[in-house]
Batch of 2 targets.
Target 1
Amino acid sequence: MIRMNCFPCFTSQKSRNAPCTNNNNNQTNEHDEPEFRPPVATTKRVEERETEQLPVKTFNFRELATATKNFRQECLLGEGGFGRVYKGTLQSTGQLVAVKQLDKHGLHGNKEFQAEVLSLAKLEHPNLVKLIGYCGDGDQRLLVFEYVSGGSLQDHLYEQKPGEKPMDWITRMKIAFGAAQGLDYLHDKVNPPVIYRDLKASNILLDAEFYPKLCDFGMHNLEPGTGDSLFLSSRVMDTYGYSAPEYTRGEDLTVKSDVYSFGVVLLELITGRRAIDTTKPNDEQNLVAWAQPIFRDPKRYPDMADPLMKKNFSERGLNQAVAITSMCLQEEPTARPLISDVTVALSFLSMSTEDGIPTTIPMSSFRDKSMSIALSRHGSCSVTPFSLPRKEEDDNSSSSSESEDEEEEEKEKEKEKESIRSMKKQEKEETTAHSDDESDSNSEKGQEKEHSQLEKPRDSSSSVSDSESDQRRSIHETNATAQSLKINYSYSSEEEDNERPSSKSSSKSNEESTFSWHDSDKDHADSSRNTSMRINSLAHDDTSRNTSMRINILAHNDSSRNTSMRMNSLAHDDDDEEEEEEKHETRLEHIHSSKSEDQSVYSDEESGGSSLHQIEAEEEEHISSDND
Ligand SMILES: Nc1ncnc2c1ncn2[C@@H]1O[C@H](COP(=O)(O)OP(=O)(O)OP(=O)(O)O)[C@@H](O)[C@H]1O
């Protein structure tokens, strides 16, 4: 039923005839002339004021009725769980807006509504649809948002217009990156964190340049009929396919539930398949259920990709994206990565690598170990178990009390344990699944290693819009930060503990290392055996001596050769899991070689000790850090 259609006096003959573009894919630019301008005399604003200290306006109902041509059908953009959404033009400024008319079931009181609106208005980020204002006249509950002209991600993935080109890989990764940034803002930059609860492809809107903006965030308390099972069930149906397993188990939702939903969206971007598609055969209708067995079989990753992309993507990038996705879709919430870590990883994947420059994700970029563990597991980095300190955000924690630090560390350890448990569980499943095809499994390991190396971004020089350039600046900053990060790495968790900012400084805390990974990629034929890892151990001691150690990992199994350094990852012993988890650590121990002093063996015991990589280590001593 169409509501609020009783304002004929606000609609001129001209406006009746004027088309109200309700095609949300019409690429209308916000700066274009608005297509509808009712006569000034009939649309005089009764009231518009800035709500105290907040960039949100109150609109009266007439104003919004005018903007949407009395909520005419032709202005209807669509109807969702909250109510109908109309495209409109604010008469006072000519700005295009989306007016969301909240369903009146379970109507919230005016004060309650206002309070919700004010807290919504505080959420501002380039990747979130901006709330411009609201109307709470009488029993009206309307929200006015910026209009996003390009339609939703769902439209572009599944409801393409004739002649519309399918989205390419980089565009998809950029959309994922932008959406992750929006979510990261809600989870990490807002206090208290906002759980989105409703992340899905139809809630990711795209502007004319495919810049993503999340909508319907923070609206939980405005849901119609909250507490009314009839209305709740219709929304759950809509979100079905995106909801985390804990939701179906009746547990509380957390930020990690959003990470799960994000994983589903990422999977949709990669595969071009809907989260739920009832037109597909039974075993393919639920996207995650369909994808789970494929996650364990990297050989099948390329078949997973959206056929519309016609394999126009780097296989390595695909493998990394799938690795991130499968991590987000872990059954156990605590085993899923932080969205901030997903964001960092996607910042690298959303960079074009057409020039074939080897790319790097510094492990130090990740705040939580689960992401580096996941990427390591998918062969993106073999040197997982370095104990990494948290990123620069934690610098702020120096002001926190010691008990908070301890609590934080406990949580970290718990998360790490959970990740390892989850990995082991999955590894066991894989072992069972592949026990009848050992040779395949071996070749997979090789393939994973070959294709899943981490990528180094390069700057894009194309001209961009303001918002996009902001985003690129942000990408650049992220990368610059990541690349310049010095890892205070330690060889055991005890040592790591000693290196926490809150700890008393020790000589170890002054040992800083930069870590970069040069990938062996198919694209670089000759380098396929020469994955080179450069570790610059910068000893900031009184003599300012920098020790730079170069380690080349040669991807073959000849362990008998030339060893001077051994890296043991002690995280794998089924007999004594708890103890091993405590020992989750990497050791560098120098062992002697019969042939050469400058080569090493990297022993990855996590993979059953079967993969030994030759490491060539050359120690260079620099007199000053200037030489680095
Ligand atoms: N700010 C906006 N700019 C442009 N179009 C919008 C905007 N907000 C919503 N829309 C469009 O309006 C329609 C309804 O959106 P709405 O968010 O209410 O529902 P939904 O996302 O389809 O479902 P749900 O409410 O269950 O999430 C969708 O087609 C959506 O793309």
Target 2
Amino acid sequence: MPIKAILTDIEGTTSAVSFVFDVLFPYAAKHLPDFVRQHAERADVAEQLTAVRRDSNEPEADVERVIDILLGWIAEDRKATPLKALQGMVWAQGYQAGQLKGHVYPDAVEALKRWHQEGFKLFVYSSGSIQAQKLIFGCSEAGDLSPLFSGYFDTTSGPKREASSYARITQAIGVEPSQILFLSDIVEELDAARTAGMATCGLAREGGELAGHTTVDSFSRIDPSTF
Ligand SMILES: CSCCC(=O)C(=O)COP(=O)(O)O
Ligand SMILES: [Mg+2]
């Protein structure tokens, strides 16, 4: 069955790993402590602090201890949902202040625009929170790319290396899994998407192969009609 929807990862796929590791994560590490101290009582922040205490098995942790846990998770690139939610809130301030601009590879911008025009439905699935996803595309160096997307999925749909997450996303998109093309730079994510029945294409921007999957080094080499 022909591809109707394209689901894309962000880090390493539409956007440079270096933007996430050298710009976004350091920005969060610098600004998250004061953000948490200032907004610990705000309902959406308090909900995430409670989740950090639960996930770290430290139910009695005070705000300073929770901040330490979060900084540790940033350092080890933990894809923990409460960390990702809080990072999204901190980055929002950076984008609003004009201190951050989302990096999206020019070939990805061009292909996403073309696929949107050709009628493909475009979706994002990233470990970054939905708020963070909307910001990277909405406040990108190439302008506001958010009108191109029909929906966003984060780890509230499940971890990216588990097939059940892709089955959940397929239900939400509302087409057959074989009509969805998933793009990622991580072979375990591609394997999980394939197990759920999706078509897959690996992005290896420095060259090389993602074992068992069609692999390209640029969005310009992806033709959805060939999957
Ligand atoms: C949404 S931009 C921030 C990216 C991020 O926090 C992250 O963990 C990247 O994960 P991905 O699933 O896009 O590789
Ligand atoms: Mg990735």
